[in-house]
Amino acid sequence: MKKLLITGGAGFIGSHVVRLFVQKYSQYHIYNLDALTYAGNLENIADVADEENYTFVKGDITDAPFINALFKEHNFDGVIHLAAESHVDRSITNPLEFINTNIIGTVNLLNAAKEAWKNELNDKRFYHISTDEVYGSLGSEGLFTEETSYDPKSPYSASKASSDHLVRAYGNTYGMQVIISNCSNNYGPNQFPEKLLPLAINNIKNNNPIPIYGKGDNIRDWLYVLDHARAIDVIFHNGATGQTYNIGGINEWTNIDLIRTLCKIMDRKLERTIGTSEQLITFVNDRAGHDKRYAIDSSKLSRELGWEPSLQFEEGMEKTVDWYLENETWLNNIVSGDYAKYYEERYGR
Ligand code: NAD
Ligand code: DAU
After folding, report:
1. Cα(64) to centroid of ligand 2, in Å?
2. What pLDDT was estimated at residue 348?
3. Per the CB 3.0–4.6 Å rule, which of 125, 248, 282, 340 could disulfide with 184?
């Protein structure tokens, strides 16, 4: 049985990746390594907790001795690395945490893998999950391709860009079999409610203002989280070593149009008069250094590995809203804890 290490599997995207791999590949034993920071939640992955081919390991990727020992103990056959600090706004108030986790943590994993795999480097794959934000910000035209120069503009994206460079450097210098993908904005079940869509769903449900930064004209390219997990599966198994693959939804929305669409869905689901939720939209101070537009060209992934997004956006939004409305306890457990303090500091009451 092959041993696969997935980091960050108690978070939003990681939990979907872990579930997909545990359920699809009985020939793999999946080790889910997660520090359970504020963003990590074992409830996200509770349904596979008792599967025979699954083990949860609580641990911090910034703890090098722990990571080295873990690799010695298990001699993993591959790594899919998602653990990260992931929220841009938090990176603006606390950049160092992002440097530690996203850069030092990634280097710790690379070092441990390099050492543990030194006699069989060619058989082991290190797959690093990254973001389209490393490419910076687009004007009204064009798309990010795999050839677009890196130009990160927030502490978060700079830390992710740095980790991407280090992964490539370990491939080039030490001959590690590395692979990277850069994905656009994900949405779907289990996303922590600091991010735009779940934050807005929660606020609409509770009749609270929906904070929109600036004029709401920034553009993001939205992909349903399970389609990202499917892409990760395809790239891990069939992607070419040393390559980068962009993953995106071909689905650009301005924030304001996205939230207006969400408001209509919420009005229908909550049986409110159409137009009620839109009245909650409140324009607030812009994010510092707010990237204007992200949009991904994922044609390489589609051409070379046959991946396409499977879900229409309307269907993905319906599923997402249904999940949050049906999982009130999950949401309430989060918003009643430390999150309440974070929210008050960031947005006021
Ligand atoms: P998330 O914040 O929901 O989850 C991150 C997980 O990592 C959490 O479970 C957390 O406990 C864990 N973690 C954080 N620091 C850790 C540490 N020091 N040691 C071990 N575990 C730690 O993030 P997400 O949105 O699921 O993103 C996952 C990955 O995908 C990240 O690398 C992110 O950069 C990338 N990504 C995210 C998106 C998106 O739209 N959310 C898009 C593209 C790429
Ligand atoms: O593009 C991929 C990236 O997408 C990932 O790498 C990040 O981990 C992920 O957090 C996400 O980054 P964004 O900054 O795009 O996501 P966020 O949900 O924070 O914001 C989406 C847009 O909505 C962005 O233009 C900022 C805006 N926004 C966000 C919040 C939280 C608001 O207008 N109001 C808000 O309250």
Report:
1. 30
2. 85
3. 248
Count up the domains in the chain and report the number.
1
Does ligand 2 lie within 6 Å of residue 84's CB atom?
no
Lookup: tokens for 46: 């509770």
User: Within 13 A of 273's CA, how many CA atoms are on the CB side?
Assistant: 3
> Global pTM?
0.98
Write out the catalytic residue numbers. Answer: 132-133, 156
What tokens were used for 17? 């990746």
Q: Could you tell me how many residues make up the chain?
A: 349
Q: What are phi and psi of 48, to 5 degrees?
A: -110, 5
Q: Is 246 in the pocket of ligand 2 (CB under 6 A)?
A: no
Question: What value does the mean pLDDT of the chain take?
Answer: 97
Residue from 90, 129, 130, 185 to probe ligand 2 pocket by mutation (most atoms less than 8 Å from CB): 185
Mean pLDDT (whole number) for 139-166: 98
Mean pLDDT of 305-332: 96
User: Cα of 107 to ligand 2 centre, how many Å?
Assistant: 26
Q: What is the mean pLDDT of residues 221-241?
A: 98
**Distance in angstroms (rounded) separating the CA atoms of residues 22 and 48:** 7
Cα gap 201→232, rounded to integer Å: 27
Which ligand lies nearest to the CA atom of residue 81 in the structure? Answer: 1
Residue 14 sits in which domain range?
A: 2-187+223-247
Residue 62 is assigned to a structural domain of this protein? yes
- Answer whether residue 335 is part of any domain: no
Q: How far apart are alpha carbons 313 and 230 in whole angstroms?
A: 16
Number of C-beta neighbours around residue 273 at 10 A: 7
Residue nearest to atom 5 of ligand 1 (CA): 11
Which residue's CA is the closest to the ligand 2 atom numbered 19? 195
Specify the CATH number for the domain of residue 67.
Answer: 3.40.50.720
